[in-house]
Amino acid sequence: MTRMLILSALADPTRRRIVELLAAGELRSGEIAGRFQISAPAISQHLKVLKQARLVRARVEAQHRVYQLDPAGFTELDQWLHGIRHFWHARLEALQRELRKPVEVKSRATRRNRRHGR
């Protein structure tokens, strides 16, 4: 469930940009809002979605909320991506081996496959 929240949160370009900003370091909500051409309440909604997805967390400092990236959501995302990488790794390795074969070997294999209807 959280995985879908993460992917949904990152589907929005404004939220992706917020994540990129916070990757450089923590920021107050007003500092984040000042970097966009949308209202502060709209930024608050984006931050709320990112918090629900566990991609950012906030702490209160005086009258300000200070946001930073939350490793929990990114760890979950990375674990999921690892499975996807594993799926593609074997296929990409096979493609790489095929591409490295000499041209004449590929040509013979292609002719043989055509004769046998493959």
Account of the protein in words:
The chain folds into 2 domains: 69 residues, Arc Repressor Mutant, subunit A (Orthogonal Bundle); 43 residues. The two termini are 42 Å apart. α1 packs across α5. The protein contains 6 helices and 3 strands; from the N terminus they run ααβααββαα. It has a 3-stranded antiparallel beta sheet. The chain has 118 residues and is mainly alpha-helical. Helices cover 69% and strands 12% of the residues.
Descriptive terms for the model:
3-stranded antiparallel sheet, 118 residues, mainly alpha, Arc Repressor Mutant, subunit A, single chain, 2 domains
Q: What is the top-level CATH class of the largest domain?
A: Mainly Alpha
CATH fold category name of the largest domain: Arc Repressor Mutant, subunit A
Radius of gyration: 23 Å
Give the end-to-end Cα distance, rounded to a whole number of Å: 42 Å
Shape: elongated
Oligomeric description of these chains = single chain
* Largest sheet, strands/sense/barrel: 3 strands, antiparallel
Number of domains: 2
CATH superfamily of the largest domain: Winged helix-like DNA-binding domain superfamily/Winged helix DNA-binding domain
CATH architecture of the largest domain: Orthogonal Bundle
The helix count comes to 6
Instruction: Quickly give the structural class.
Output: mainly alpha
Biggest sheet: strand arrangement? 1-3-2
In short:
This protein has six helices and three strands, in the order ααβααββαα.
How do the strands and helices of this protein lay out in sequence?
Elements (H helix, E strand, L loop, with lengths): L1 H9 L2 H11 L3 E2 H5 L6 H13 L3 E6 L2 E6 L1 H30 L2 H13 L3
Antiparallel strand pairs: 1-3, 2-3
